[in-house]
Specification:
Two copies of one chain form a homodimer. With 309 residues, chain A is α/β, with parallel strands linked by helices. Chain A has a domain of 209 residues: NAD(P)-binding Rossmann-like Domain (Rossmann fold, 3-Layer(aba) Sandwich). The first copy, chain A, has a seven-stranded parallel beta sheet, sandwiched between helices. Chain A has a two-stranded parallel sheet with strand order 7-10. In chain A, strands 8-13 form a two-stranded parallel ribbon. In chain A, helix 1 links the parallel strand 1 and strand 2. In chain A, helix 2 packs parallel to helix 4 and helix 4 packs parallel to helix 5. Chain A is globular and about 55 Å long. At the A-B interface, helix 4 and helix 5 of A face helix 4 and helix 5 of B.
Chain lengths: 309, 309
């Protein structure tokens, strides 16, 4: 990305947005960050902060008006909440994104980077590790919304030549992930461990996920800003599967004590195994994950301790 | 379908709905038809007619309350209109369908048959004839809406065991197709020919489509009512590609005179070639198209003349 181009991060105040704005702010001038009141304001000290609501089409149109590039990180729901009210999920995510895309066309935005969900857009995968061309049959409304947004991005590219790049991110973890609920198990489990609270595991802990460190995700977004490959959709993960029980024992080593685990009945929204095939990103985005799980976990643990969570 | 089960057709007053209700009404008792004021009331004389608006969730919930099976034919937009206002298209089609599916779960509906669009859900196909497992990158908002509804049907099946069958219908034609605009070119061109009006063709007439006669579509829906194959999504077409220019010369033979054609610039929503691979429906739905194009065209012409269109 050229340093004189303007880039806005939407949904900046969350986990990925905070780290992304911190890193992009160090590297580029003219980064704008749009979102709700952030928990960690220091992450945005080198960005122009704009407080606002993604659901407000006028605020969005004003915010992106002078930008070349939009990075869309907004998650107006979680996999669990989206399944409870699918209409609200669709309105908050897809309809708001359509309003955003219309505003992009109207104001001459050149490219949209969208963070999609590698863990949900495929549904129960028939191929593991799962490549981008696999069938998409999400088993959560969250996954359907993400997939629908991907399809609209493809449509706007066709209709208006609005360029785009979709990053289907696996299970990201690392500094700024603060949710104590089960989104982001590494951070959530650490917080429970520090406070000597038992952790809840749905199922028997054998579900396998693909964990990718936040700084590797940030690097993928940075590369996507300038990527000109014919591919528009990339899996971003480690390419390696780790079970929840393995995560728990790795965390136990990091904190130096056993964790109390409540094993609860499995949920029908949980896919048994999710591992992404990341060869396309390696070949065509010039990206690869650089942070070994152990190093990422230690960095996450140190950050959580220092943050007072 | 057992004759004591109740089936409702939503979007009954349109082209497919009218012929479907006429045919199902002859075969089964307890067919309900829901829709806006129909042009051809006689088509519904053996059904229970319910006037209503698909966008009204309460009306839909009341209408389906005592039904086992829902046949969802509603098109709240056309490929051209959907591209102009994508948010309205999403609201009218997808949000309303989510309300329908919630009502189905609440009232114990067992199965939903959804008529999707074989001509738009694939986008520009990489394989011709196009099988169901091909990539979906629609180049119209209409196609994105249809595809999104398919994904929600798969989700509701996963979450609630609400069974479903998606029929991706190619270009249907035949009696009750009355639109003089370019949806349904066979009927539209005939109407123009009868009134000695020139017909408009976007592009040079070489675009190839897969035309399937309405009674073959009705037969596919009838078979879907009882289909228990592991497949939930079927292409319904002729499996054969016909160019617009071939259609025009076939119509010229039928009417016994030349048609005046205005060739207009091509539209970026028109896919050059769309032909469906129908082998899955042959093998697993026990369906095949039975009406040769020439016979279907003559039957359509006779119907248009008798209807006074």
């Amino acid at each position: 990305m050229q340093n004189n181009s303007r880039c806005i991060v939407l949904g900046a105040s969350g986990f990925i947005g905070s780290r992304l704005c911190e890193k992009l702010g160090e590297k580029y001038s003219n980064i704008k960050a749009f979102g709700r009141n952030p928990m960690y304001k220091d992450a945005f000290k080198k960005c122009k902060w704009i407080e606002g609501d993604f659901a407000d089409a006028n605020q969005i149109a004003n915010a992106i008006g002078d930008c070349d590039t939009v990075i869309h990180l907004v998650n107006a729901s979680t996999p669990a909440s989206a399944n409870i009210n699918r209409v609200a999920d669709l309105q908050a995510n897809v309809v708001s994104t359509l309003n955003l895309l219309d505003a992009c066309v109207n104001s001459g935005v050149k490219k949209v980077i969208f963070l999609s969900s590698g863990g949900t857009v495929y549904g129960v995968p028939s191929i593991i590790p799962t490549p981008e061309a696999s069938e998409n049959n999400p088993i959560t409304a969250y996954g359907v919304s993400k997939l629908t947004i991907e399809k609209y991005l493809s449509l706007y590219y066709h209709l208006y030549k609005l360029d785009y790049c979709v990053l289907r991110v696996a299970n990201p973890y690392g500094p700024y992930q603060t949710n104590k609920k089960n989104q982001g198990v590494i951070s959530a489990f650490f917080q429970h461990a520090i406070h000597d609270e038992p952790i809840d595991v749905w199922g028997d802990g054998t579900v396998v996920r693909d964990y990718v460190f936040i700084d590797d995700v940030v690097n993928a977004i940075d590369l996507a800003l300038t990527n000109n490959s014919p591919y528009k959709v990339f899996n971003i993960g480690s390419g390696v599967g780790i079970s929840l029980n393995e995560i728990i024992s790795t965390l136990e080593q990091a904190v130096g004590k056993s964790l109390a685990v409540n094993y609860l009945p499995g949920r029908n929204m949980d896919i048994p195994v999710s591992i992404l095939d990341i060869n396309r990103a390696k070949s065509h985005l010039n990206w690869q994950p650089l942070t070994p799980l152990h190093d990422g976990i230690i960095e996450t643990y140190n950050w959580i301790k220092s943050s007072g969570l």
